[in-house]
Write a structure and sequence with these properties.
It contains 13 helices and 13 strands. By secondary structure, it is an alpha/beta fold. It is elongated and about 105 Å long.
């Protein structure tokens, strides 16, 4: 299964369905598309989709005292509004993404050509919805807030059997989350248990936009999600949401994390030449402890090791017992690569390397 679609992907979720105001939603999309472009990252802007007429039971639609019902009713959108926003997301060079909360909304995702679907933490064992999502064959990101281990195992097996790419987000579903509630070691757990899946971090903390990114990336998280919003007159941004300048800081922390972590952990890094040269300057060279005549066979007593290592001199790395002296070497003089019978002297590339290092 192709994991690449999830690698280094940021998911920016429009909080509270932008209060159901399509113009406000368009302003959020515009603001964050610019932040994404400025930071040269790959990002999806995600909307929430609900078939409100069926999602909320008709006998409870007037229950304004139930927060989730009130918010769902107040923030519903027409299909044309959603279509307009998806178009704006694409025009902003972001990926249009959606969380469908019911089966009809999955069909809407299909109609809109949404390429990646999100399964919310609340729906990790809603198998009617999960089976409907699977019929699309689209890649899925799942958040695991409040889930059991069996919930995640079952999802991994289900999507794996259908060859549908699945990314698994560590998530703490507390809005907002305190630093001590982040449980970032769960990223290690998920990576070890599901090594063939991209592991991500969906976060709701509100004190800092740098530290958790640095730590999550270093632990191996490769897709990241936050709620986004903008400040407008007469409303207060929820503390678990991020403003454009905070997402800018978040993206910059990602780039710093990549810089500090370096090459992928699946392979040995290639040291830069300046590092190699520095370490070569600390290596001990081989010096004659007595006068050594031509034809002499070296033993441990014939040499000693000391700094500096000189150009063309063999070091402790190349010293071998039983090498034959080709040209006499006086006491305390360096033993040069050309003065011994050694494999390093007969291989041009190795000989050239020895003449490039050390003190001139």
């Amino acid at each position: 299964m192709n994991r690449d679609i999830f690698e280094d992907l940021f998911v920016l979720e429009l909080a509270n369905n932008h209060l159901g105001d399509v113009e406000r939603g368009m302003k959020i999309i515009s603001a964050y598309s610019q932040v994404v472009r400025f930071n040269n990252v790959r990002a999806a802007i995600k909307i929430q989709l609900r078939d409100v007429e069926r999602f909320v039971h008709k006998d409870f639609r007037a229950r304004t005292d139930v927060r989730y019902i009130k918010k769902t009713i107040d923030t519903q959108l027409q299909f044309e509004d959603v279509q307009r926003m998806v178009r704006a997301i694409r025009e902003g060079n972001c990926i249009a993404m959606a969380t469908p909360f019911d089966e009809k909304s999955v069909d809407v995702c299909q109609e809109l050509g949404i390429p990646i679907l999100k399964l919310a933490s609340s729906d990790v064992n809603d198998w009617v919805l999960i089976e409907k999502i699977a019929t699309t064959k689209k890649p899925v990101i799942v958040s695991t807030g409040g889930s059991s281990l069996k919930d995640i195992d079952d999802l991994v097996t289900f999507f794996g059997n259908r060859h549908i790419p699945l990314a698994i987000n560590h998530c703490v579903s507390m809005y907002p989350s305190e630093d001590q509630e982040l449980e970032l070691n769960q990223i290690d757990f998920l990576r070890n248990r599901y090594p063939h899946h991209v592991i991500g971090f969906s976060t709701h903390e509100y004190h800092d936009w740098t530290n958790s990114m640095l730590m999550a990336y270093a632990k191996g998280a490769r897709t990241f999600e936050r709620h986004i919003d903008i400040q407008t007159d007469g409303m207060t941004v929820s503390p678990y949401c991020s403003l454009p300048e905070q997402i800018d800081t978040w993206f910059k922390a990602f780039h710093k994390a990549k810089e500090m972590c370096g090459a992928p952990g699946s392979q040995k890094r290639i040291p830069p030449q300046k590092e190699v040269a520095y370490l070569d300057s600390l290596v001990r060279g081989v010096y004659a402890s007595r006068d050594l005549p031509e034809g002499h066979v070296l033993t441990d007593d014939d040499v000693y090791l000391a700094v500096p290592l000189q150009r063309g001199q063999i070091s402790c790395r190349e010293l071998m017992r039983g090498e034959v002296i080709r040209t006499a070497v006086q006491k305390d003089q360096p033993i040069m690569i050309d003065k011994i019978d050694s494999p390093y002297a007969s291989i041009p590339s190795l000989r050239a390397l020895i003449y490039k290092r050390g003190l001139e």
